[in-house]
Amino acid sequence: MKTIVISNRKGGSAKTTTAVNLASGLAEHGSVLLLDFDTQGHASIGVGCDLDEGLGVHSIFSGKTLCETFIPTVHKNLTLSPALAFFDVYEYFDLSGVLKNRFKMESIAEFFDYCVIDTPPTFDALLKNSLDVADSVVIPFVPHHLGVIAVGQMLRALYQSATQNGRKVADVYILPVMYNPHIVEHRESINKVKKSFGEAKLLSPIGVDINLAKQFESGLPIVLDSKRSKGSNDYSRCVSELLERFQEVDKCQVK
User: Fold this and answer.
1) What domain range is 76 assigned to?
2) For a tag on the chain, would you pick the N or C end, based on fewer CB atoms within 10 A?
3) What is the pTM (predicted TM-score) of this model?
């Protein structure tokens, strides 16, 4: 199972939009588990489900198993563990390693080809639990000055987490979102990311498309919409690029 964490400590970076569409796009290629770790629960809404006030992914921190939170979604190959409404991470003292233990104890990797985790825009126990199990991290960012800074901050958090836990640093992919090629600052920001973090980490940008916002009203990810649009084409391309990168990484590991 390949676990992909979608994260950016800066809000408003299309993190949930990216998680929903990557999970749904990957479901065309295998079985996918989507964990809605952001307590706002927008990823759950994005795949046609409601938040639960009694049972959800955050219930693992109070002794529940991960499997008992699973519910079906708009795609037959996509399973959701929804956000638990009103979960407060700060009510707990130590949540370290809980998700990693659930993965191991329940043999989650035997049931899914991919796991996509939508994370909150904070460096708290929920993000740290997600990074504990990450094979890859996708960082969506809006291409402007603060967006570039946020990418650097997220990378430092990733390396810090790997160092503290003595594990291999996850593969990083940086995804420009809400991109307009006619805006000079957008082009310059992407060039800064290339120079600062390496072109190999950069994915093709997701352009501006009002349909990306409207998809949450219907609960149907744009990559599954039969009416093709710029947003659906961009995210479909992103899924293809990620699959290619995964294959390259797997080949290198075999060697």
Assistant:
1) 2-254
2) C
3) 0.96
pLDDT category of residue 34 using cuts at 50, 70 and 90: very high
Pairing of strands 32-36, 171-176: unpaired
Residues 6+ apart with CB under 8 A from 45: 51, 216, 219
CATH code for the domain of 238 = 3.40.50.300
| CA–CA separation, 240 and 25 (whole Å) | 9
Q: Which amino acid is at 163?
A: T
Phi, psi at 39, each rounded to 5°: -65, -10
Instruction: Give the total number of structural domains in the chain.
Output: 1
Q: How far apart are the first and last CA of the chain?
A: 19
CB-CB contact of 147 with 189 (8 Å): yes
251 has a pLDDT exceeding 80: no
HEC profile for the chain? CEEEEECCCCCCCCHHHHHHHHHHHHCCCCCEEEEECCCCCHHHHHCCCCCECCCCHHHHHHCCCCHHHCEECCCCCEEEECCECCCCHHHCCCCCCHHHHHHHHCCHHHCCCEEEEECCCCCCHHHHHHHHCCCEEEEEECCCHHHHHHHHHHHHHHHHHHHHHCCCCCEEEEEECCECCCCHHHHHHHHHHHHHHCHHHECCCCECCHHHHHHHHHCCCHHHCCCCCHHHHHHHHHHHHHHHHHHHHHHHHHC
pLDDT at 120 over 80: yes
